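In the design runs reported in the main text, the only information available to the sequence generator was the tokenized backbone. The following block is the verbatim input for one such run; it is reproduced so that readers can re-run the procedure and compare outputs position by position.
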């Protein structure tokens, strides 16, 4: 009776298989299973192909290709089920026809309906979808099919064999046919053995992949460390590091946001969003080719940034639209087309230095542990680099402050020396002028009387000559000896010459007094031309006969300035020109003085004074140092390098003006002074400086 039932069941199965066009495969497959050695050889052949590579994708693709070909499946696929995210991803597939819709990509548990619990539990899933006759055979072979007759992705016949061994995910080797299919015990056992071999191959590939990722991570970290050590410029360090990270993780955008210090924080987010200088200082971004920068739309006070600042923890978001902190309609993320984001705090010793944003825009991405570890390692290195860059910037600022202080000290020293020098000169000039002024005033005051007396005496002598008819021989001889006629004619000329000389001496005394101006420490309205002329008078003994002073004066109003300081500037610049001409062997030596009114913001409220010579000139390489304290182009012992430094300070700092040098070798030198007609209010310290 039992043999009869078996015969009847086989007859029914053959009929069903013919309608399903599987009889040829079924018979062929049974031939294979008749020999145990043949089965082992087939198994070993497939396993060898699977183990031929250590690349996980190649291993999985080889497995599905071999299984699909061996079982003549319409589709064989391999999927991963991620327990934490409760998501499914079809990693690879093999199809008989390319026209069928691909299963690759992300899938959901809802695709499996009520059988989703088997996926979650990592159980094998079988759906025979067979008629009653097939069920009889299965019962004879003691196979218990599931009661459900549900299709998966449109496939009626399926066998999903779990591939375990992964902590975070479970794999499934999926054998799929659109029409019902009978899975024998030997087929199931064979696929289980393939799954076990696949588990080992996946573990080896995973280990290799982890080793490769570790090597890649270490190589990337070493490159970043190398870049960090090669530069202390923060922008260079950050842009290079995030560019390397973008390439290593194959993301679309990588951005780093420096968390500003409390003293530098802007008052509100609206001001931050509108402040271009803030963005250039605190935000750096690199993008994969094809993606535009999104710094203009980045909100430094966004919800994720605030969460990271508050909690100082990583944030891994596979789907931005599903994160309640961001929301589905966040304009910032929509404009940047961000689908997935990994945000890592960059911190050292609990102090947040920056926030690192890794954004995937082309597709949703589940961030792996390796992704997070690599990003964290880079963030840790960047934290150290940022701290070092800040320390370097502080040291640089201190160095600059010290250099500025040193320069001020040198300037103060030069000012003190120059002040002492000019004070001594002024006192000497004032003393000489005073000593000369008294006797010359006496002479000048008596010359008119002397002229009057002399004229009276000459008139008397001439009257005697006319009234006396008898001239004695003695008087005649005396008149001849003293050349009376010449004396009478020359005495008025001598008196006129004395008068002119006394007037010139009085003029020189006045110029000396104008130059010294000991009591003019405050701002006064000064005639610039008179100041120039008084300086020239002081230097008249140094102006050689072969040096011509050429003047081109414009009609200038009185200029508000510090007279003594301005005289000192003129003295230094003219002295510089005279010394340059003294070293020049060429003839035709000339000093040109020019003055004119100049416009500033549409108003003629500045004056321009140019003092030029046609001497040997100053090399261009020395222009940047010409106003430095104690710098001189003269021989040792001939100059102290103070005059031009003090002049620059007087014009630029004390009078809010400009002092420039224009010179070319063998083409002379020209110093151009520009000062306003009216001085703005200054502190008492500035008012007395160099006065």
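Verbatim output:
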């Amino acid at each position: 009776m039992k043999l009869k039932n078996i015969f009847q069941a086989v007859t029914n199965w053959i009929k069903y298989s013919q309608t399903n066009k599987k009889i040829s495969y079924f018979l062929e497959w049974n031939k294979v299973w008749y020999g145990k050695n043949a089965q082992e050889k087939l198994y070993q052949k497939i396993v060898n192909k699977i183990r031929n590579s250590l690349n996980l994708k190649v291993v999985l693709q080889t497995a599905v290709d071999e299984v699909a070909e061996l079982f003549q499946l319409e589709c064989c696929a391999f999927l991963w089920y991620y327990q934490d995210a409760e998501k499914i991803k079809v990693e690879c597939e093999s199809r008989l026809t390319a026209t069928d819709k691909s299963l690759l990509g992300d899938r959901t548990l809802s695709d499996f309906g009520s059988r989703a619990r088997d996926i979650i539990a990592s159980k094998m899933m079988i759906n025979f979808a067979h008629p009653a006759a097939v069920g009889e055979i299965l019962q004879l072979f003691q196979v218990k099919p599931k009661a459900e007759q549900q299709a998966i992705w449109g496939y009626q016949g399926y066998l999903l064999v779990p591939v375990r061994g992964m902590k975070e995910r479970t794999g499934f080797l999926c054998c799929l046919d659109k029409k019902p299919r009978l899975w024998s015990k030997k087929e199931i056992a064979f696929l289980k053995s393939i799954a076990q071999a696949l588990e080992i191959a996946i573990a080896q590939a995973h280990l290799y992949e982890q080793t490769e990722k570790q090597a890649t991570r270490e190589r990337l970290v070493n490159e970043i460390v190398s870049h960090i050590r090669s530069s202390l410029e923060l922008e260079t360090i950050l842009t290079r590091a995030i560019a390397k990270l973008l390439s290593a993780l194959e993301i679309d955008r990588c951005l780093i946001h420096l968390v500003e210090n409390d003293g530098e924080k802007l008052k509100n987010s609206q001001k931050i969003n509108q402040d271009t200088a803030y963005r250039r200082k605190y935000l750096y971004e690199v993008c994969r080719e094809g993606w535009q920068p999104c710094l203009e739309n980045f909100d430094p006070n966004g919800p994720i940034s605030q969460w990271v600042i508050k909690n100082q923890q990583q944030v891994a978001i596979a789907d931005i639209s599903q994160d309640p902190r961001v929301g589905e309609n966040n304009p910032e993320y929509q404009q940047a087309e961000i689908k997935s984001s990994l945000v890592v705090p960059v911190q050292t010793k609990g102090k947040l230095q920056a926030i690192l944003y890794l954004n995937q825009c082309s597709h949703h991405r589940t961030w792996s542990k390796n992704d997070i570890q690599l990003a964290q390692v880079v963030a840790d290195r960047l934290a150290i680099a940022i701290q070092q860059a800040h320390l370097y910037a502080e040291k640089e600022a201190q160095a600059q402050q010290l250099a500025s202080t040193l320069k001020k000290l040198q300037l103060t020293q030069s000012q003190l020396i120059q002040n002492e020098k000019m004070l001594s000169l002024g006192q000497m000039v004032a003393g000489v002028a005073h000593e000369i002024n008294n006797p010359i005033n006496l002479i000048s005051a008596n010359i008119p009387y002397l002229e009057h007396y002399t004229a009276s005496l000459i008139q008397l002598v001439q009257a005697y000559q006319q009234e006396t008819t008898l001239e004695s021989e003695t008087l005649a001889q005396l008149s001849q000896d003293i050349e009376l006629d010449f004396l009478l004619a020359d005495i008025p000329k001598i008196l006129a010459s004395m008068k002119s000389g006394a007037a010139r001496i009085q003029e020189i005394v006045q110029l000396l007094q104008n130059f010294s101006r000991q009591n003019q420490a405050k701002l006064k309205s000064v005639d610039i031309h008179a100041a120039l002329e008084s300086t020239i008078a002081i230097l008249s003994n140094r102006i050689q006969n072969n040096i011509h002073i050429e003047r081109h004066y414009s009609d200038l109003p009185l200029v508000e300035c510090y007279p003594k300081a301005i005289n000192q500037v003129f003295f230094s610049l003219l002295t510089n020109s005279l010394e340059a001409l003294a070293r020049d062997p060429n003839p035709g030596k000339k000093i040109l003085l020019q003055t004119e009114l100049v416009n500033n913001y549409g108003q003629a409220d500045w004056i321009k004074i140019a003092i030029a010579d046609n001497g040997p000139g100053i090399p261009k390489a020395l222009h940047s140092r010409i106003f430095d304290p104690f710098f001189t182009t003269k021989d040792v012992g001939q100059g102290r390098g103070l005059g031009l430094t003090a002049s620059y300070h007087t014009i630029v700092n004390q009078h809010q003006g400009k002092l420039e040098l224009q010179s070319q070798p063998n083409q002379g030198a020209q110093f151009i002074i520009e000062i306003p007609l009216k001085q703005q209010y200054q502190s008492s310290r500035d008012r007395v400086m160099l006065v």
